[in-house]
Design brief:
Organism: Haloferula luteola
Structural class: mainly alpha
CATH topology: Ferritin
Order of helices and strands: HHHHHEEH
InterPro entries: DUF892_YciF-like, Ferritin-like, Ferritin-like_SF, YciF
Protein name: Ferritin-like metal-binding protein YciE
Pfam families: DUF892
Helix content: over 70%
Number of domains: 1
Largest sheet: 2 strands, antiparallel
Number of helices: 6
Oligomer: single chain
Length: about 170
């Protein structure tokens, strides 16, 4: 039962833990479906980051004497299900890569919102160490989002996945 900001904060931590756990399961599948080497590398790198993010949540929960498991992040479940559906309905190649990037960007935006909210609650509650750990994750999620967007749109001297998907 959520009775106050502290119990809401703990609920949010469990929700984020569930989300990260689901992504640890989903990222290898997304990596296998990707064809662009930069996208495969981005998913591989973010898988390692995601494991670290989940570990930070475990540290925060241990500090407060709560179990991180026990909540199911239905939003992440839906995002993963949608990514799988669209990935399976798209032929391999640049269009599927564009689908995977779009799905991954949605996940990153969801996680940025979730971690931003949790960080705000931790700050109000005076959990300064939690704020530092949550901020570290927020920075990683933002960087992952930017990296995916760069792969989609390309850089100064090359076209991105989205451009290749036009063909």
């Amino acid at each position: 039962m959520i009775e106050n900001l502290k119990s809401l904060y703990f609920d949010q931590l469990r929700d984020l833990y569930s989300a990260e756990t689901q992504m640890i399961e989903a990222l290898p599948k997304m990596m296998a479906q990707a064809s662009h080497p930069d996208l495969k590398d981005a998913f591989s790198d973010h898988l390692e980051e995601t494991r670290g993010q989940r570990s930070r949540l475990e540290k925060i929960c241990a500090r407060h004497g709560i179990q991180p498991a026990g909540e199911t992040c239905d939003a992440m479940k839906g995002l993963v299900k949608e990514a799988e559906k669209h990935g399976n309905e798209t032929l391999p190649g640049s269009v599927r890569d564009a689908v995977l990037i779009a799905a991954a960007n949605r996940v990153e935006h969801y996680e940025i919102a979730g971690y931003g909210t949790a960080k705000c609650y931790a700050d109000v509650l005076g959990f300064d160490e939690d704020v530092k750990l949550l901020d570290e994750t927020l920075e990683q999620e933002g960087a992952a989002d930017k990296k995916l967007t760069k792969i989609a749109t390309g850089g100064l001297f090359h076209d991105g996945v989205n451009e290749a998907a036009l063909a």
